[in-house]
Amino acid sequence: MENPVPAFDRIQCPALHSKIMSAQQAAELIPEGANVGMSGFTGSGAPKAVPLALAERIERLYAQGKNFKIDLWTGASTAPEIDGALAKVNGIHTRLPYQSDPIGRKRINEGSIQYIDMHLSHVAQYVWFGFFGKLDVAVIEVAGILPDGRLIPSTSVGNNKTWLDLADLVILEVNEYQPLALAGMHDIYYGTQVPPNRVPIPLLHPQDRIGEQYLRCDPNKVIAVVPTNKSDRSSAFKPADAASQQIAGHLIEFFKHEVKLGRLPKNLLPLQSGVGNIANAVLAGLNDGPFEQLTAYTEVLQDGMLHMLRSGKLVHASATALSLSPEGEREFVDHIDFYRDKIVLRPQEMSNHPELIRRLGVIAMNAMIEADIYGNVNSTHVYGSSIMNGIGGSGDFARNAYLSIFMANATAKGGELSCIVPAVSHVDHTEHDVQILVTERGLADLRGLSPKERAQAIIGHCAAPDYQPLLQDYFDRALHGSVGKHTPMLLDEALSWHARASRTGSMKPAQAGQAPQAAQADQATEPA
Amino acid sequence: MENPVPAFDRIQCPALHSKIMSAQQAAELIPEGANVGMSGFTGSGAPKAVPLALAERIERLYAQGKNFKIDLWTGASTAPEIDGALAKVNGIHTRLPYQSDPIGRKRINEGSIQYIDMHLSHVAQYVWFGFFGKLDVAVIEVAGILPDGRLIPSTSVGNNKTWLDLADLVILEVNEYQPLALAGMHDIYYGTQVPPNRVPIPLLHPQDRIGEQYLRCDPNKVIAVVPTNKSDRSSAFKPADAASQQIAGHLIEFFKHEVKLGRLPKNLLPLQSGVGNIANAVLAGLNDGPFEQLTAYTEVLQDGMLHMLRSGKLVHASATALSLSPEGEREFVDHIDFYRDKIVLRPQEMSNHPELIRRLGVIAMNAMIEADIYGNVNSTHVYGSSIMNGIGGSGDFARNAYLSIFMANATAKGGELSCIVPAVSHVDHTEHDVQILVTERGLADLRGLSPKERAQAIIGHCAAPDYQPLLQDYFDRALHGSVGKHTPMLLDEALSWHARASRTGSMKPAQAGQAPQAAQADQATEPA
To answer: Where is this chain compositionally biased, Low complexity type (chains A, B) (predicted)?
Structure first.
């Protein structure tokens, strides 16, 4: 961790100069048992020094036989300096609303972190409602501090507005690495209220600006200002593999079909897309595809959308965070004046708001771990019990979308696991919320289908050939042996594929001479 | 079916006089294979003559060896004259979005009706989007027709606006039985659009009127006007039983606690409540309770809310339908001038709109079939495969509510079934959407709890004493034997309680000498 000379030009509020200190000093100010709200969304804009210093402090305290844990609230996932470091030293009691760190995941799945996996749109309001208790400390990365104490936001907004509004104490990290030219890209809406005083949110188009450029912050609450100079966690951009390209191809054919039938405008509707291999392929496919003047209303702006803005296919993008590869980051920083009026970064309350997603008619495209033959989707759990990451914003988007699309490879672990199963081992999106399923095998359009019709569409279009006869056999027997024939289910068998895989490593029926192999949740495929 | 002399004073549009005909004549105008949108929500405002005449026609056609089925779309549940009669003659191919008729249920569960169980807020927009194809015929009950062809709505609004806007052909039933004084109670919002042209819905309070009193209808589309004179299907009002009163008691204590902590205003927030025994008890409890100046933003206005309006505890109620007992109906009709400015009846798009439910901060109180120890809720299926009724609006309300509450008796079938189970056999509301569970045993507040903490709260507070040790034993063993310890689950055992009950009639472990008793879906307890 570099710790440069305090950069006074980024800290323009004179009242805060006396609060400039090291990360170690700031970390000492966080009380044991505190509820701590940190910035960060997909690693972007997360504090980089104080959490690490806090982890070091916790490690020292444990070595002295003392206990020290915090409850950690964020926007979404963060970086190894937060979730990794704090989980490693066992410094987290309760974690919400989302995390994707491997050490954090291990702690959760061994049972030592209490993890609350939430819809991202619910977080800020539940804290405002007082449902999780008082927020003690906010630790927020910013790009700069204005003379009056307002903050130039960093590369993500997440829940920062709420943390700054509600925390008793505020610690700011001023990250010189983040371009000051970010100023002007953010749109912080200050019109939220608690019921019964809420009013309509005046946003009509993805590019609308309805708030302020800067985050408000009461300088009297600021107890520490820590200068840093470090890049966001970023992942290398992987070119799409063949299966992802096939998924993208099916989706683009589907969009063409919908436009032809008049069920989608020629420029589609605002796109929401997650991160990962499949999402990259879909965006690359759209970048090469026939649709022009596209817009995005989404959580994260990843390389694929940057490419589309560059090419002109995408004219506007609204998100709550950037999530760029090192190359994407360079492209963004080098051409920030080109991108500034095409990108709006908002609080996640707004990017994920049911009111806005439904009004705009977003096309929601999310990855999944598995779906069952009736269209229930599991986004979070392996073998029903181990968390992968979390539901994130997928529920906010799927439930309120114009089109709710879920995507996965048809198999995982080299074909040993089918992503289409008799019954999912955990439900995050119910049959009522899932319209389109896509694998590299094909696309199942579930709109207007009953459960039995859905089963035939999913088995026929999405399942891998190895599993198609097994699924059809299950369905046929369920059709006869089930108590009811509305959603045929064999209660003794519905979860048997997962049970088998947890013992043998494969969902395929045992064959003579096959050695069982114990399952590890960590071996499972991470959703794209 | 009474078929009185045409009542010209209710049919004031001269152009439609020539369209007055019998139900039998009108039923002849519905084509085979048509998509038919009918009025009706909990039996209120459903057409009473044409569907019955259509069923008679279908029966005759089948007797002649001819096939005749329609796809039937409604607001929600209807009456025996629709779902019962048409299901009995096997006249329904696809049914959406909700039904509760016993004959309809039997047909669905034997597999002969394709049933699409939907969020009620999704219905109108999916039809506008073209996802279900063209609407051929609308059959709508009204209280009267104005000179210019506009319609005085009946006792429910449901999807009538959408059906009238989109259907090629319209059949009107003018029901003289419905009081003409209904005029003025409805608020039909005509500001809806299809994306990308949607704008904020300008509703800020449950009592706000943002639309028109009457339904628009193009007289040129009207092919038949059928006079009727018949009351809505109504159910007797049952006084609350002891268990329901205990559930109500727990809830009211909880509300008091939340007000004391400042997490709810003194007059609470707009109430949403289903129908049935538990809902009646809760409303009766609120009527006797300490809260004043209450409001309701809900789907149906049942006797309990009428009593609360009468007593002054409730000052305003917004719904999409009345759902009254015969006594409630008399009270309502006799004092309609008292009730008119206190009740607003809206399209179900508005009563169930995520934007409005979230803005208003509704307190959502819904019945369930069962919940599991992690807070997943099953509202629809028995033994995972047989539909009871449907999800209705519970998802619209639960997901977007200020407080999301689900209620059930701790056991069903005389104690043979536990309503708290290791894993629900079908998920309608995921762990992410369920905050409060209540049974007569107590209330579990799941806010801010991890899955394992939720399990202890639910087992400890909600489960029946007979099942508590069994659930605790499952949970303890899962905590050790599960692949992951985040949401401990024994894949071989999670659905075993349902499997056992489907064979023996009881979730309790087999005891020596106990004779197995095959399960019938119909035997299961209907959600309150």
So the answer is: 509-528
Q: Do A131 and B263 touch (CB under 8 A)?
A: yes
Give dist(CA A27, CA B171) in Å, integer.
Answer: 72
Output the pLDDT for position A514: 52
CB contacts, 8 Å: A118 with chain B: 432
Residue B185, pLDDT score:
97
- B415 is a domain residue: yes
Record the tokens describing residue B50, joined without a space.
Answer: 């044409």
Say whether both B224 and B249 belong to one domain.
no
Contact B499 A482 (CB under 8 A): no
The pLDDT score that the predictor gives to residue B277 is: 87
- Residue A51, helix vs strand vs coil: helix
* pLDDT over 60 at B99, yes or no: yes
**pLDDT tens string B139-161:** 999 999 999 999 999 999 999 99
Whether the predicted pLDDT of A322 surpasses 70: yes
Averaged over B360-369, what is the pLDDT? 98
pLDDT over 70 at A526, yes or no: no
Cα atoms in the 13 Å half-sphere on the side-chain side of A382: 27
Compute the nearest-CA separation of B354 from chain A (Å).
6
Catalytic pick from A141, A173, A176, A299?
A299
DSSP B430: -
Do A335 and A454 lie in a common domain? yes
Q: How far is CA B441 from CA A451, B372, B464, in A?
A: 35, 15, 7
Which residue of chain B is at minimal alpha-carbon distance from A497?
A: B491
Structural domains in chain B (count): 2
pLDDT per position as a tens digit, A346-399: 999 999 999 999 999 999 999 999 999 999 999 999 999 999 999 999 999 999
pLDDT digits (tens, 9 = 90+) for B477-527: 999 999 999 999 999 999 999 999 999 999 999 775 555 454 444 333 333
Q: B176: domain CATH number?
A: 3.40.1080.10
> B1 pLDDT band (50/70/90 cuts)?
very low
Q: Is residue B34 part of a domain?
A: yes
Structure confidence at residue B476 (pLDDT): 98
Task: Give the predicted TM-score (pTM) of the model.
Answer: 0.96
Q: Which residue in A233, A239, A218, A445 sits closest to A324, CA to CA? A: A233
Q: Which of A195, A484, A486 sits opposite B269 (nearest CB)?
A: A195
First vs last C-alpha separation in chain A: 30
Peptide bond between residue B196 and the one before it cis (omega within 30 degrees of 0)? yes
Cα(B358)–Cα(A35) distance, integer angstroms = 26
**Residue in A117, A381, A486 nearest the CB of B432:** A117
Contact A195 B431 (CB under 8 A): no
Whether A145 maps to a domain, the answer reads yes
List, in order, residues 6 or more apart from B90 with CB less than 8 Å away: B58, B62, B69, B107, B112
- Interface test with chain A among B385, B387, B424, B475, by most A beta carbons within 10 Å: B385
Say whether both A267 and A222 belong to one domain. no
Of B469, B491, B517, the residue at which a domain comes to its end is: B469
User: Same domain, yes or no, for B153 and B223?
Assistant: yes
Task: Spell out a b/e string for B124-151, using b for 16 or more CB atoms within 10 Å of the CB, else e.
Answer: bbbbbbbbbeebbbbbbbbbbbbeebbb
Q: Is there a contact between A129 and B402 if contact means CB atoms under 8 Å apart?
A: yes
CA distance B505 to A205: 55
The one-character DSSP state at A154 is: -
pLDDT at position B517? 52
Task: Name the one residue in this structure whose structure tokens are 């400039």.
Answer: A20
CB contact at 8 A, A426 and A378: yes
Q: Which domain holds residue A416?
A: 243-469
Contacts of B190 (CB under 8 A, 6+ apart): B161, B211, B212, B216
Residues A421, A335 share a domain:
yes
